[in-house]
Amino acid sequence: MFDAYTPLRYFFLALGLAAFVVEAWAFIDAITRPSQAFVAASKQTKPLWLIITGVAAVIGLAGAVYGVGPTSILPVAAFVAAAIYLADVRPKVKSFPKSRNGASSSGPYGPW
């Protein structure tokens, strides 16, 4: 009835949910970036990053729902993949403007 490890279990659940939020953020951000930005920034391709961050988000969701411990290798690897995207790839592709229908409205010195 009384479980001595309940506070620790709640802490790991909160940690798993926070990791899932980071992984979902990375996946959604990768969806919104133009594919030319990834190639121009020399950061692999957009489909590859969508696969990496998408798999990370699914693993994070499964880890949070089923209560997989944070010391398991899959949730840790999923979080690391999302963190690499957010820390390394996102700042580089973020500088490219989001275009509409392949056309950009920026001139040589900025938007016009």
Poorly predicted parts: none
Class computed from helices, strands and strand pairing: mainly alpha
The end-to-end distance, rounded to whole angstroms, is 67 Å
Give the SSE order as H and E letters. HHHHEE
Count of DSSP H/I helices:
4
Topology:
Elements: H1 6-32, H2 35-40, H3 46-66, H4 73-94, E1 106-107, E2 110-111
Antiparallel strand pairs: 1-2
Helix pairs in contact: 1-3, 1-4, 3-4
Question: Can you offer a commentary on this structure?
Answer:
By secondary structure, this protein is mostly helical. Helix content is 68%, strand content 4%. It contains four helices and two strands; from the N terminus they run H-H-H-H-E-E. The chain has a two-stranded antiparallel sheet. A hairpin with a 2-residue loop joins strand 1 and strand 2. Helix 1 packs antiparallel against helix 3, helix 1 packs parallel to helix 4 and helix 3 packs antiparallel against helix 4. The longest helix is centred in the N-terminal third of the chain and has 27 residues. The mean pLDDT is 85.
Short characterization:
By secondary structure, the chain is mostly helical. The chain contains four helices and two strands; from the N terminus they run ααααββ. β1 (106-107) and β2 (110-111) form a beta hairpin.
